[in-house]
Write a structure and sequence with these properties.
Blueprint: E1 2-3, H1 4-10, H2 16-24, E2 28-30, E3 33-34, E4 41-42, E5 49-51, E6 54-56, E7 64-69, E8 98-99, E9 108-114, H3 117-124, E10 132-139, H4 144-152, E11 155-156, E12 159-160, E13 165-172, E14 175-182, H5 189-196, E15 201-209, E16 212-213, E17 222-224, H6 227-236
Parallel strand pairs: 9-15
Antiparallel strand pairs: 1-4, 2-3, 2-5, 5-6, 7-9, 7-17, 8-9, 10-14, 10-15, 11-12, 13-14, 15-16
Bound molecules: uracil.
Uracil (URA) binds next to helix 5.
């Protein structure tokens, strides 16, 4: 829900003050009723707005963003404890966007943000098994046994993980750099999987989401998805 005058201003109808005047002058109707109170709230996705009898198109333009999340930002829209959120990295004029799934505050890398609720729902639905690849620095020299367990499935308290694909990139100074591809989105899944096999995660970065990767997007920066990518995402969850 949003204040009517704020919504009118954001929709480019007039400045906030002029929008307030329009309302007070009785020129704005919400669902057929003239609204003259300034505190009135509307739901832009449902309510029909008319100004001087003309309908206002309240449908938001779909926006699709690929963000390279740095450490220290949480993946929610607003935080009640005043912590930094991924929305602090996106200009306000992009409107209200929502993360597709979550990355922990200490996890970096690829996070999609969109106002397309239907696509978000589909992309995060386990049925579609979107693959997500993480580059993980773990403590210890990873063993074949641990890799086998990760690949076959780890019994976590919320169920057995689906088979993963594991690639060891480097073992050095008592640490292992490992890439793991999973198809689910359980809470803190990668950290819990490595913890369960005795190799605690020290650094975690999501480097790809399906066919999307971080190429050309530095930490803290974002880019818009191309229409080709958007269509591809939509097609892959049909
Ligand atoms: N797995 C985790 O443990 N953390 C994330 O942020 C994402 C996947």
């Amino acid at each position: 829900m949003e204040r009517l005058q704020k919504f009118l201003a954001a929709a480019g109808i007039a400045s906030r003050r002029k929008s307030e005047e329009l309302i007070q002058q009785g020129r704005v109707k919400v669902n057929g009723q003239v609204v003259t109170t300034l505190g009135a709230k509307i739901d832009p996705s449902r309510d029909r707005i008319h100004i001087d009898g003309k309908p206002l198109d309240t449908k938001e333009e779909p926006v699709y963003i690929l963000l390279n999340k740095p450490k220290g930002y949480i993946s929610t829209v607003r935080d009640t404890h005043g912590r930094k959120t991924v929305m602090d990295l996106i200009p306000k004029h992009m409107g209200r966007l929502y993360p597709v799934g979550r990355l922990d505050s200490q996890t970096t890398g690829l996070l999609l943000l969109t106002n397309d609720g239907e696509l978000t729902y589909k992309l995060t639905h386990p049925k579609h098994e979107f693959s997500k690849t993480y580059r993980t620095l773990v403590k210890g020299k990873i063993t074949h046994e641990a890799i086998n367990q990760l690949e076959q499935g780890i019994p976590l308290e919320d169920g057995l993980t689906a088979p993963a694909i594991v690639n060891v990139l480097e073992i050095k100074d008592g640490k292992s750099l490992v890439e793991i591809t999973i198809h689910e989105g359980k809470n803190r899944q990668v950290r819990r999987m490595f913890q369960a096999v005795g190799f605690p995660v020290q650094n975690l970065k999501r480097i790809s989401f399906g066919f999307l990767n971080l190429k050309g997007v530095s930490p803290g920066k974002f880019r818009m998805l191309t229409s080709y990518e958007i269509n591809n995402l939509k097609r892959s969850v049909l």
